[in-house]
Amino acid sequence: MNYYKMQIELESGLGTLLAADTLFGHLCWSILYRDGEDSLSEFLASYKSENPAVVLSDPFPEGFLPMPFLPLTIGQRDNLREVIEAKSRKARNSTDANGIAKKLVKSCWVNKDVVFKNTTKLTAFGLFEQMIDAQAPQTLKQKLVAHNAINRFSSTVEEGSLFFTQEYFVDSGEPPIFDVYLYS
Q1: Alpha carbons 106 and 118: distance in angstroms, whole number
Q2: CA 162 – CA 145 distance, rounded (Å)
Q3: pTM recorded for the entire structure
Q4: Can you name the residues that pair with 35 across neighbouring β-strands?
């Protein structure tokens, strides 16, 4: 079995956030529509064996991985604040060291290159120290979108049929790209 990376580029908003189980469901429907029910049954039967047909990760923003859960002591948090202040003095700009430290600690994503540089000694302080100047991934924002129900017989909007759904969009700029890791 081999590892692969697949990329998904969004061209519109999403009704639900991307997840491995949603992608797996789409894969199953694709197999059913393209190859029929027997092929889908054979595909699903592989998951009862030692070698499943494919294992999918959740989608991650391009170039990022989920932040690992690593302990950060109070002393390390103070050291991180000092490192941020030293970098801002060197760059001759004023920054809110406490705000940046809090933002780093709450971040969900870490650049994959930062993780791979630190594989022999992976610590929260080491990751955060390298993330100070790093760019954060583009994230999806949740918005309420208004919809109307249309009477298909009269092609008119029904009275009192306005409803809202939560959808996920990018604020602006390039459409986001997500990395999905596969084992097949």
Answers
A1: 20
A2: 10
A3: 0.72
A4: none
Other C-beta atoms lying within 10 Å of the C-beta of residue 80: 22
Q: Distances from the Cα of 123 to the Cαs of 73, 128, 167, in angstroms? A: 11, 9, 36
> Long-range contacts made by residues 108-115, C-beta under 8 angstroms, separation at least 24?
108/66, 108/67, 109/60, 109/61, 109/64, 109/65, 109/66, 109/67, 109/136, 109/137, 110/64, 110/65, 110/66, 110/67, 110/68, 111/63, 111/64, 111/65, 112/63, 112/64, 112/65, 113/63, 115/65, 115/68
Separation of CA 84 from chain center:
26
Write the pLDDT tens digit of every residue in 119-171: 677 777 778 877 777 777 777 788 888 988 888 898 888 888 899 988 887 76
Whole-Å CA distances, 122 to 113, 115, 130 = 13, 8, 12
